[in-house]
Design brief:
This protein is 53% helix and 14% strand. By secondary structure, it is of the alpha/beta class. The protein folds into three domains: 3-135, no CATH class; 168-291, 5'-nuclease (Rossmann fold, 3-Layer(aba) Sandwich), CATH 3.40.50; 297-370, Beta Barrel (OB fold (Dihydrolipoamide Acetyltransferase, E2P)), CATH 2.40.50. The longest helix is centred in the first third of the chain and has 35 residues, at 42-76. The chain is elongated, with a radius of gyration of 36 Å. The N and C termini lie far apart (122 Å).
Length: 384
């Protein structure tokens, strides 16, 4: 018998002793067995009550331990401010219930006790909900009243996590398979804890067992990246063992977990990004980050590209920069598989990324030769 189960048995036995001493004598009177001296003995009543509740403890210990584990998991995932304000709200609610119970304790019969218990349950719950759902307002109120004076020059300001800081960054399947999150986390651009839920790992396992060779390779790559990040001392990765049995979609589970933990979802999935925005769940999109880091090119700048295929329009050619940016070259289909100097004419941003339009540089030179710049106006030369 483990320690927790033993403690549950002791608590049940003590409750049984109390109920045996308080309830069994009335029960013996009800069945007219008060003449049986050995049965109406207080020691026997206490032992019978303890025995009955020990049997109940043995039958219900497994369920109680599971519920306690669920409560521990829930509380361990909550922020310190959530627990603090929830506890303070519960205490305030119970104190109010105790004060009100002073006036209701004089009710006839058992009603005084019943009303007191109901008041404690209701006001305690309302106090907990008020403390946890409005904790941002309580925190601002306490900060306003206990505001510290401005530090003198030369003092180092205390650094603390702001209201926009979120500890847990939840990884979805697409961003794990992509692999770039490992490099970003390793160089320190993602703070906090990378959280990988078990249902995401299970989806990667299903992909790695697919009959399609391409999907199988992607799934195995994702599992390898998880193991590499977990073994890397520079990356803080944790696993989440919980699940949501009432949901089947991994994306829905991920968004619900992000709401419960007040976390951020890291993804490359365009549709998941849109759904998360609709549900007010913060998202970090690796593709959006990559597009933001691409250098800006303005019209007139020169590039050297290699046209690899024809474009959709007549005589267009398509080339790609090292970061994957598409370059559409006018009259570029005549220079396929050849290095070509081009001049940027315009650039647009699309949902798929940046697209650059350019012309061959020698065409620009020939245009300048055909239309030379006019000579600057000045004095006419004088005749000698």
């Amino acid at each position: 018998m483990n320690t927790k189960k033993r403690i549950i048995s002791i608590i049940f036995a003590l409750v049984g002793v109390g109920l045996g001493l308080g309830v069994l004598p009335a029960l013996w009177d009800l069945f007219n067995v008060e003449n049986v001296t050995w049965l109406t003995n207080p020691i026997v009543d206490a032992l019978l009550g303890a025995l009955i509740f020990l049997i109940l403890a043995e039958l219900s210990a497994g369920w109680i331990l599971r519920q306690l584990k669920a409560v521990e998991t829930y509380l361990s995932n909550q922020s310190p401010s959530y627990l603090l304000f929830g506890s303070l709200g519960t205490i305030v609610g119970l104190v109010l219930a105790a004060l009100i119970s002073i006036t209701t304790s004089n009710l006839p019969g058992p009603w005084g006790t019943v009303v007191s218990i109901v008041l404690m349950l209701v006001l305690g719950y309302l106090g907990f909900r008020t403390g946890t759902t409005r904790r941002d307002e309580w925190r601002k109120l306490f900060n306003a009243r206990g505001k510290k004076p401005e530090p003198e020059s030369g003092e180092v300001l205390e650094r603390r996590a702001g209201e926009n800081y979120r500890k847990f960054k939840l990884l979805d399947t697409s961003v794990i398979i992509d692999g770039r999150v490992q490099s970003i986390a390793k160089i320190g651009f993602i703070e906090g804890t990378l959280l990988v839920p078990t249902f995401v790992v299970h989806e990667l396992q299903l992909i790695s067992d697919s009959a399609d060779a391409l999907k199988r390779g992607r799934g195995r790559r994702g599992l390898d990246i998880i193991n590499q990040m977990k073994a890397d001392p520079d990356i803080h990765v944790e696993m989440y063992d919980g699940d949501f049995e009432d949901m089947t979609e991994v994306d829905s589970k991920l968004l619900k977990l992000a709401k419960l933990l007040d976390g951020v979802v890291i993804t490359n999935d365009y549709n998941l990004n849109k759904v998360a925005q609709f549900q007010n769940v913060p998202v970090l999109n690796i593709n959006a980050l990559a597009n933001a880091l691409k250098p800006d090119l303005i019209p007139g700048e020169g590039l050297t590209v290699t046209v690899i295929k024809s474009g959709t329009e007549r005589q267009q050619g398509v080339a790609y920069l090292e970061d994957g940016t598409m370059v559409v070259v006018e009259d570029g289909q005549f220079y396929i598989n050849k290095p070509l100097d081009v001049v940027v004419t315009s650039a647009i941003q699309t949902a798929a990324g940046r697209m650059i339009f350019a012309k061959p540089a020698h065409q620009q030179k020939s245009l300048r030769e055909q239309n030379p710049d006019p000579k600057p106006a000045g004095k006419k030369p004088t005749r000698k």
